[in-house]
Every structure is written in C-alpha cells, then in structure tokens.
Amino acid sequence: MPSITDAATLGDGLKRTRELAGRSLAELAADTRVHERYLRALEENNHSALPSRVFAIGYVRAYAAALGLDEQLAVERYKRETPDGVVPLQPPVGIAFEEVRRYSPRIVGAIVLIAVSIIGWNVFQRVSLMRAPQPSDIAEVPESWSLGAVIGQEPVSVGAPLPAPPDQTTPALYITPGLEAQLTGIDPADTEALAAAAAANDTPVQAAFNPRGAIYGANATASQVVLQAKKAAALVVRMADGRVLFARQLAAGEAWRAPPGVAATIDVSDPTAFDVYLNGEHGGALPAVLTPLAQLNSRAATLARQTAARAEAVAAQAAAARASAAAQASVVQTTDAAQTALTTAVAPR
C-alpha cells in the first residue's frame, strides 16, 4: 500500500489506496459501520459535510484501519489539514478592573487611617493612666474630724484570746419523759433517789479490749484474761512443772489470751509494756515481772460476780419500783371507784 503522506491531501490518499485495493465505498461502509456519504466526504475533502470534529476523527481512524494504513498518521494529517476553529477561553466579562484600580488607593488609605486612629487611641489611654496621682483639694473638712472622739464610737481593742471550749464528741443522752421512772423506778424529780442511784453505780467504765494485731492463746469465748502489748516486749508463760506454755516477742498491738483453770506463771521483760484486760475491760498493767496466772483469773472471776450482783440488784430495784407503782395505781383506782359510788348514792333522785 502507498503511504498516506505521498498524496496531495488526505482524501486523495484514501481514495487512491481504496482504488488500488479494489474495494468500493459500500464495502468499506459495511466494514467500518460509517455511512457511505461520510466516507465520500473524506475522499473529496468536503469537511463541511462531516459531523463534529470528534466523530470525523473517529471516521478517519476507522477508514485508515479498514484500508491497512497507519491510523495515527492519518489522524495527524487530518488535524493539520483541518485546524480546530474553536475560540480559546477568554477572561470573564462584566468586571470593571479599571474601577477597582481607580478606587484601590482610597480604600487602602481609609484602612490605614482607621488602624492609625485605633492605635493612637490606645496609646493615649495608656499614657493617661500612667500619670502620677495628684493630691485632691478638700473643699470642706467633716465635722467629726475637728470634734475629736465621739461618744459611743470609742476605738475597738482586741484582748487576749480566750481558751477553746472543751471538746464535746458525745451528745447528751435524750431521756423520754416518764420512761426512766417506769424502767428504773426512780423519779427524775427526786434528787435524793438520783444521788443514791448515782452512788450505787459510780464505778467508772473501763476501756474495752480493742484488737490491734495478732491474738494468740485460748479461744475468745473461754478466756477471761487478755494481755496486750503496748510496745514490743517478750512474753513467756511457764507451767508449774517447768514446761513453756507460750513464748513470743509480741509487737505493739498483739495480744495473748490466757486459758482458764491453768496453773502457770507469766514472765515478761517489761511489765509496763502490757495491758491487762479482765472480762473485756481494762484492768491496768501487770503488777510485776513474774505474775501468777491464777491471780489474774481470780480477779476476773471476782469482777464477773460483782457485775452480776449489780445487775441483779438493779433488776430487783426495778421490779420493786414497778410493783410499788402498780400498787399505787391500784389504790388510786380503788379510791376513784369508791368516790364514784358514794357520789352516785348521795345524788338526789
């Protein structure tokens, strides 16, 4: 096949090549699926009969491929022979650049003037505040200044501080009116009965045992004597036959419960380092370095009997008071009934 560049025009080259190949426009139209009139327009260089430039380039490419020619070379020659007549993009219209350039110096000047005014006002305010204060002229002296001290307006002086009030951590016990007399049989208005009851119950309440560490020894339900270390100290408990029942260096807060009915001796390094608790209440310190355990158990038993006796006495006193109150109520009720019957008998019929 001859080259597409040998012909004078693209249309002449396409037509010459088709004639040499012995093919008709109808055959090429069927192969390329391009209408026959468009192929004839390409051979005759009648570009006005072709559709838009995009379709025309597609027809050229298909025509050259059907004839076995270089498609890209044919497209490039078509573009050179038919330059694109589309108008290039133009800047948008309707904006008056001359007007902007004309007024831009005025706008810039106004902005600069406003900025200078704001800065100047702030500087003026700061300079005004930085001026040294000047003494003011008093037009008239108040009368109280010239009269001196005024009665009732003596100067206030602060004396020595007063001691803090005593701490009150336990609120006063509320007593329901009439309930105390009903339970104890003591009239709250009777000072002598109150004094006697206070004298009978004047035994101070001791501090209760408070575990603050490990507890060794007997069970809590079986023991009545507890030794608690206030500081680190050694505790050794020896049986009557010389055997060691307990031996340990107790730390502060640790305790040992003594078993009941055991004949032993308590041997400590420092008796003041241990507190003795009898029946759960504080019983003082150990009396000596060597203390018989039976002595402490005997004290605990004595205190238990005393506590039980006091409880029985209080219960008996309360029962007697209730019986007396019931007897008085019965006498009053009998008297009221007799008086009512007498009034009914003497009433006129």
TrEMBL record:
Gene3D superfamilies: lambda repressor-like DNA-binding domains. InterPro entries: Bact_Cytoskel_RodZ, Cro/C1-type_HTH, Lambda_DNA-bd_dom_sf. It comes from the Bacteria. The keyword Transmembrane applies. This is Helix-turn-helix domain-containing protein. The chain crosses the membrane at residues 107-124. Keywords: Membrane, Transmembrane, Transmembrane helix. Pfam families: HTH_25 (PF13413).
